[in-house]
């Protein structure tokens, strides 16, 4: 890798560190290619990405970024799992770590906040952006459906009373 390619990689990593809602740093020593592809596919499905980068270049890219505190985690064979959604990457990494002993979460960052292993686990248990939006939409729609039900109820009651009276009159 020549100097220009290294500079380009540092720029790409810098953009990742700036634009990501969460970055999770993990060790991946011993993972097979198939397992790594599985991790990448799960991250892609959740709206995130997985990136293996040289630690030295990643540390250079971290300089002056909000998540600069994760530089200490970049030792050994590390992989970065990241997403714009502040929860997606943590959920993917946590789920993958449960099923694979070779994938070890070291920590991460959420904006300027450094996360330890317990912090990444706590973030992974939070609802995702889509889940929050659907919950809020459900809460907004519930009062309207309750009002519609309350307004429509007397009419249905009157209709059933009228049909009962009609049946009695016919008999």
Automatic annotation (TrEMBL):
Keyword vocabulary terms for this entry: Ribonucleoprotein, Ribosomal protein, RNA-binding, rRNA-binding
BP GO annotations: translation
InterPro entries assigned to the protein according to its UniProt record, in alphabetical order: Ribosomal_uL10, Ribosomal_uL10-like_sf, Ribosomal_uL10_bac, Ribosomal_uL10_bac_type, Ribosomal_uL10_CS_bac
SUPFAM superfamilies in alphabetical order: Ribosomal protein L10-like
Listed NCBIfam families: PRK00099.1-1 (NF000955)
Subunit structure, as described in the record: Part of the ribosomal stalk of the 50S ribosomal subunit. The N-terminus interacts with L11 and the large rRNA to form the base of the stalk. The C-terminus forms an elongated spine to which L12 dimers bind in a sequential fashion forming a multimeric L10(L12)X complex.
Function: Forms part of the ribosomal stalk, playing a central role in the interaction of the ribosome with GTP-bound translation factors.
UniProt-recorded name of the protein: Large ribosomal subunit protein uL10
Native organism: Roseobacter ponti
């Amino acid at each position: 890798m020549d100097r220009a390619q290294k500079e380009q990689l540092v720029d790409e990593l810098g953009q990742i560190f700036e634009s990501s809602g969460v970055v999770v740093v993990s060790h991946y020593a011993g993972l097979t290619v198939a397992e790594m592809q599985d991790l990448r596919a799960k991250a892609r499905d959740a709206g995130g990405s997985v990136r293996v980068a040289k630690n030295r270049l990643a540390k250079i890219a971290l300089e002056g970024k909000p998540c600069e505190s994760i530089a200490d985690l970049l030792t050994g064979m590390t992989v970065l799992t990241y997403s714009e959604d502040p929860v997606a990457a943590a959920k993917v990494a946590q789920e993958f770590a449960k099923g694979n002993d070779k994938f070890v979460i070291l920590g991460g960052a959420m904006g300027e906040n450094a996360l330890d292993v317990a912090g990444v686990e706590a973030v992974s248990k939070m609802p995702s952006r889509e889940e929050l939006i659907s919950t809020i939409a459900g809460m907004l729609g519930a009062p309207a459906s309750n009002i519609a039900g309350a307004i429509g109820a007397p009419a249905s009651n009157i209709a059933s009373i009228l049909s009962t009276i009609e049946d009695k009159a016919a008999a």
